[in-house]
Amino acid sequence: RAKQRGRDTFHIFDPDHDRLLQVRHEQRQRFIAALDNNELCLHYQPQVDMCSGEVVGVEALIRWQHPEQGLLPPAQFLPVIDASSLEIDLGEWVLETAMRQLTRWAKNGIALPINVNISPTHLLVSDFSQRLAALLSRYPHVPPAMLKLEVLESAAMHDTQAALETMAECQRLGVNFAIDDFGTGFSSLTHLRQLPVNLIKIDQSFVRDMLSDQDDMAIVESVIYMANRFNRPMLAEGVETLAHAKALIALGCELAQGYGIARPMPAEALPMWLTHWPTREDWKALTH
Ligand code: C2E
Ligand code: MG
Ligand code: MG
Ligand code: MG
């Protein structure tokens, strides 16, 4: 049988390819151990209302506290589990961890919704919404609207029908959606109109250079205009400076997130960060 297949797929005899598969396998095993050993954690990045400066929520961002390599960002380990069932295991862990965090913050008087990034593989699991319902029922004191799901524009476009149905089911549970990295996924306006999303997040690549690149400025401006016309809240990612914030406010951008506001931080650091964040008056003075 190997001989027969070997005619057109000679690479199965390629030792380099075998080695690659072996490395992949070892990396996955290491990741499974990390999940079991509690080496993963979530950091949280605040999202603010541009008008009032009010903190309206946080985005949960996965980190790996690797015993030898230190704190690893997702770009260094998510590719290893790409399109495998481990993405689903990770996704469930992230959702559960976010729900526990919401419970803990509620006890400390912090009522900020958490945005969780959902991978396309996870969203398209056939019983995604049932699993989400089960999760919510384990945390009866957490209102479903405190959990928001961020889905990549490209994911929502990939298997549109299935994604749309799942998203609608989740919304019936009271869970809202944000469309992440908007502008990078080639969705048409028709698609956008169909998508049951409550927030459009314009990709940071456009925001970063908007002050120096006219094309990027035009894209940011158009997305803000369109979101306002469609009556959809929109958020600018990658707001790194006050100049960005001021320009976005002038364009009518509602919400923002970025290093200029706060870097992602451990859950324990958030209460202190909140106490230092400007009041409504200070924000007005700062941005106007
Ligand atoms: P994303 O969801 O678009 O998250 C925004 C990324 O931009 C984060 O990188 C954040 O730290 C970074 N960022 C925020 N503000 C700024 C800024 O002002 N300037 C710059 N240069 N970067 C900024 P991070 O944490 O490395 O995450 C990268 C991506 O990994 C995320 O992009 C998301 O797609 C994915 N990811 C993160 N956490 C999870 C997770 O729990 N599950 C899944 N499936 N994906 C995740
Ligand atoms: Mg995101
Ligand atoms: Mg994004
Ligand atoms: Mg991104």
Automatic annotation (TrEMBL):
It comes from the Bacteria. The chain holds residues 291 to 578 of 578 of the full protein. Residues 24-278 form the EAL domain. Signal peptide: none annotated. This is EAL domain-containing protein.
